[in-house]
Amino acid sequence: MELKGKVVRSSGELACDERLEEGRYTLTLRNEGQEPVELEELSAVFACDCEADAYFLNGYQSWTYSPERTRKQYDAAMRFVPKALDRRFGLSQYGDGYFADPVYRKDLRQGYKKGYSYAYLRRGGQFTLLASLAEDTGFTRIVIWPEENVVNFRKDCHHRWLQPGERYVGLDLLFAEGDENAVFDRWFETMGVKALPAEPKIGYTSWYNCYQNISEEQILRDLEGLKALPVKPQIFQIDDGFEPFVGDWLTVDEKKFPNGLEPIVQRIRDEGYQAGVWLAPFVAERDSALYREHPEWFQYKEGKRIYCGSNWSGHFALDPYHPEVRDYIRQSVEHFKSMGVTLFKLDFLYAACMSSRPDKTRGEIMADAMDFLREVCGDCQILGCGVPLASAFGRVEYCRVGPDMSLDFDDKLFMRWLHNERPSTLHTQRNTLYRRQLDGRAFRNDPDVFLLREENTTLSDEQKHTLAVVNALFGSVLFASDDFSKYDEKKRRLFAALCALQGAKVLSVENGPLEKKLRSVTVRYALNGEERSIELRL
Known about the structure:
With 538 residues, the protein is of the alpha+beta class. The chain has 2 domains: 2-191, no CATH class; 201-279 and 334-501, Aldolase class I (TIM Barrel), CATH 3.20.20.70. It is globular.
């Protein structure tokens, strides 16, 4: 990598400490003046041989579609969505469209590729890793221009004010070449980040069969159904739907759960399972009591509460620094801890950093928010979801690495024109494959659920089987969302085989042509001392 130049724009003079040596580049700023200085732009451009078989650029958050692409393939999401539709449903807010520079069609035609935190160029089995070591000071946007053989690293630090005497680590970049394990091991060793101790888990979640239509009767039915399985799961997780409205965590929907959640959680524990519950700590929906009663708890932009998207009745971003918001989140977590909940699936976390502050970049805000959740949850385990991934490194035991799977293989036709964070079984299994290097290094990867049932899905048997195998081979959270009491003997045997496959060691991954609508991937793995291989189409 050859440095072509850097850009530092600010409202005043800043001292720059710049170093490039042994595959590492750092750019640190210091305000040596007597007045605050506002950062306007911070970026560096490098010359790089961009000829490769495949290009990977990590997407903004957990759900963002992040596949390997060819030189000619590009991100086409949101290109033809009318602005009125975007505003109505907040489609841009799920990803980086809300705050990042626009992508122009002429750039797309030239093969412009963008991502965050890390990227790689793959030539056969050799990788060139381009990775940030300083995401806690601000997100690093990576742009690759294959036609120009240049890579641009741009810090998301616009409007960050440096106080007199303040030192700010802007860019801290690692360039590594070698095989897959070598480059990713080097990145995490250089960052000094280790995954929190956590074992792979098998479990149940209520979401993908009933969604919000859960009830005491249904939860107890599915809990009883687990007894039919040949392998006992460790986790039983109650997902969204128990609360009257998202944000109102201290009450339950009395029509669905007339006896509350406490006796159900106790029953889960009595049956020998770890009890998990879903929360979205940094959002509240429009219909919630919290939204009505505490307008001062929210983030604002131009005098309006920041809209995060159209889920439920529309949801809005809470201010993670407001002391009463922090007290409320702490009280909510303690409420479930007192019942015996020891796993928290914390979702829609991107909402914490919808806007920057004069003293904090969005990356700094997200890091602070994750540190706060870690402190609040204590010894309980966290499954992070909907979060900019680098902010979760070393802070959660488990983390989603893809979007929600869809009961249709690639969701409805009209959904395919929308944002990169939409539900899609096709997207989630590719994310699981291409973000596999994070498993065990950053956290334990959660690839989302698999299904074996026949009803309430249009997935074919082959699609269900591929999804389940990808999850078992490349993830550490093997969750299903079925009524297990309806499994026949064939499904019970398959469930047991998938649980065993979770213990396999992946030896190699060979990719077929990336241009194909369904990609062929051959995986070699070792299981019980025997080497095997399987071809997957995804």
